[in-house]
Amino acid sequence: MATGMIVKALSGFYYVQTEDGIFQCRGRGNFRKRQIKPLVGDEVEFEAENRTDGYILDVFERKNELIRPPIANVDQALLVFSALEPDFSPLLLDRFLVHIEANGLEAIIIISKVDLLGSSIPIDILKYKEQYEKIGYTVLLTSTLQKDGIDQIIPYLDGKVSVVAGQSGVGKSSLLNSLKPELNIETNEISSHLGRGKHTTRHVELLRIGNGLVADTPGFSSLDFIDLETEDLSGCFPEMERLSADCKFRGCTHTSEPKCAVKAALEKEEIGESRMKHYLQFLEEIKNQKRRYD
């Protein structure tokens, strides 16, 4: 028996990466009865007589699991947002960050196309960069994701399993192509490779890039908060999570409660006004969703 990581799943076969190479395996017959579905990213135990005739015996416990793309044990998300065309959207970025935090992932924020802004970067982009770095996120400013951007990104992939996500139309496919040119992902609006529309069953594969692994399909296409409770939301805002212990009331929602440490920090401008605004907007959205389902 041996152990390895599933790096591709296709047509009932699982391709398991080990130090000795890749082994093509099938799942055990009782997996379906036990409601076990191996995923790309899973660490597994398997046995194989040769490279193409193996069986997965066990799937080890996952630290997380994403639905889109269907992948497990992800370490981080590369969140790609453009400075222009389309304009940078802090609201959408915060929405993505909530999902990243809820899934226990790290986030690398990539603001692309800064070269389209002219000779100097606008002050608002620099302010957002400073704000998110103060929270604790890594923020990279890149041009149209050519060599300078790739050189910045590669070191952050080392030893990690990463997915790419972000704003529509910002060049997520271009980023993947730049990281791995042989991918040749289509960058038009309708792309069978990206698994849109009728092609949503397309397989996912982890690609070796630098010293890390990157999913070849952009993730987080669904950004609703159905699985998030109101009391969990502030935990997805790291700067609020750090202050929550100082609030007078346990489970403080940082709205109308007295002696709220988060509201006090907002008044001192220690928390970004846009972040608080988006938090309150998401909180109301979650409440409305719960009312509809109840």
UniProtKB/TrEMBL annotation:
Cellular location of this protein?
A: Cytoplasm
Give Gene Ontology CC terms: cytoplasm
What cofactor does this one take?
A: Zn(2+)
Alphabetized UniProt keyword annotations: Cytoplasm, GTP-binding, Hydrolase, Metal-binding, Nucleotide-binding, Ribosome biogenesis, RNA-binding, rRNA-binding, Zinc
Record keyword Lipid metabolism present: no
Function of the molecule: One of several proteins that assist in the late maturation steps of the functional core of the 30S ribosomal subunit. Helps release RbfA from mature subunits. May play a role in the assembly of ribosomal proteins into the subunit. Circularly permuted GTPase that catalyzes slow GTP hydrolysis, GTPase activity is stimulated by the 30S ribosomal subunit.
Q: What is this protein called?
A: Small ribosomal subunit biogenesis GTPase RsgA
